[in-house]
Amino acid sequence: MILCDIGNTFLHFYYRGRVWKEKRNNLSQKDSSEVVIYISVNQESTRSLLLSHPYCFDLTPYMNLDTNYKGLGIDRIAACNAISDGVIIDAGSAITLDIMHDGLHLGGCILPGIAQIQKGFKSISVLDCGINLSVPLDTLPQNTKDAVSYGILKPIILLIENFSKNKKIYFTGGDGKFLSRFFENAIYDDLLIFKGMQNIITAKITSKGIYL
Amino acid sequence: MILCDIGNTFLHFYYRGRVWKEKRNNLSQKDSSEVVIYISVNQESTRSLLLSHPYCFDLTPYMNLDTNYKGLGIDRIAACNAISDGVIIDAGSAITLDIMHDGLHLGGCILPGIAQIQKGFKSISVLDCGINLSVPLDTLPQNTKDAVSYGILKPIILLIENFSKNKKIYFTGGDGKFLSRFFENAIYDDLLIFKGMQNIITAKITSKGIYL
């Protein structure tokens, strides 16, 4: 059984303890006797997967979450199924924040990813100066590059602080490891979505004797 | 005497108590007996102004500010010359934050403007859903449009709060009026940059008997 989380930029795979990502136009051949169980937020990439592998299974109809939120992305539903209490930050091309409390999803928000925010400066040439990821966030910037870097990172950090309060923070996604360093009560877990998928598979499929 | 602040998107004019903005490719004819005193962060727009009006005066060489910040934009220097204590937020295509204390500039930062941050969602079609400017910022979002709107506005508000602490906040720029509504200790002043220019003109030029 291979797990696959199809995002907007990459297809993320999990197989026997190993995670890796692939671009949709360059998918590797996988053992055709293994089922690929997937969730997806990108139809084009889903088509590429279905064309590249003979035996795929869409987990979407089995996914659910106790929430009032309308239109929650399937990747966020999966990550929320991995924990029952805490804040989940998935920092990729977009950054999503979701709060779980006693197995209930309380709500969430979405901001552009770090690279996307940086693109917001492209139209103003003097501000298109790259990002200093080690800019001090506890002192006031004194030059343009630090001012831009601070203006990208500090609002994200403040939002996460404001969101998480005393809850444990679970980071995942490409920029998750970097962002997790700013918080004491945080862990980085690149398996979070796969753990949520696995919980669903165990609870809804294999426990009912369905063979994949 | 007409004052002009040349930004990245518009040329902003001040004349006899009235302010207005013009695009660089559609500049109006002005009274040719009046000098246009300008500062600029955009060379192309400066050229357009110089071609459209016979008598222009660049205030840049007269501008100064007590600061350790390297590369502060001339429009920010002008705005900082308008006050001696407080936080200045110029919310246009970029949002700049600057702190003044006893006439000294302590530092500042820059983030993309609201419209620019919104563009960061364009590449993800499901998130390109527009912005709800009246999204509640004290409750957790429960749908995609609110989650995106919250993710654009809340980090900006938190950064301004964190920056300003108990200082008075002076908002200017296109989104300044909207953002000022989130703060009690704030005023919106669309003349801030012109007031700073006027202070420089009074202190450095007309007080010395230079005739413009």
TrEMBL record, chains A, B:
Record-linked Pfam families: Pan_kinase
Catalytic site positions: D75
One term under GO cellular component: cytoplasm
Binding site for substrate: Y69, G73, I74, D75, R76, T144
UniProt pathway annotation: Cofactor biosynthesis; coenzyme A biosynthesis; CoA from (R)-pantothenate: step 1/5
EC number(s) stated in the UniProt entry for this protein: 2.7.1.33
GO molecular function annotation: ATP binding; metal ion binding; pantothenate kinase activity
Enzyme superclass (EC): transferase
Record keywords, A-Z: ATP-binding, Coenzyme A biosynthesis, Cytoplasm, Kinase, Metal-binding, Nucleotide-binding, Potassium, Transferase
Cofactor(s) this protein cannot do without: NH4(+); K(+)
Residue positions binding K(+): D90
Binding of ATP, residues: D5, I6, G7, N8, T9, F10, L11, H12, S93
HAMAP family: Pantothen_kinase_3
Subunit structure: Homodimer.
Function: Catalyzes the phosphorylation of pantothenate (Pan), the first step in CoA biosynthesis.
Protein family (similarity comment): Belongs to the type III pantothenate kinase family.
Official protein name in the record: Type III pantothenate kinase
Gene encoding the protein: coaX
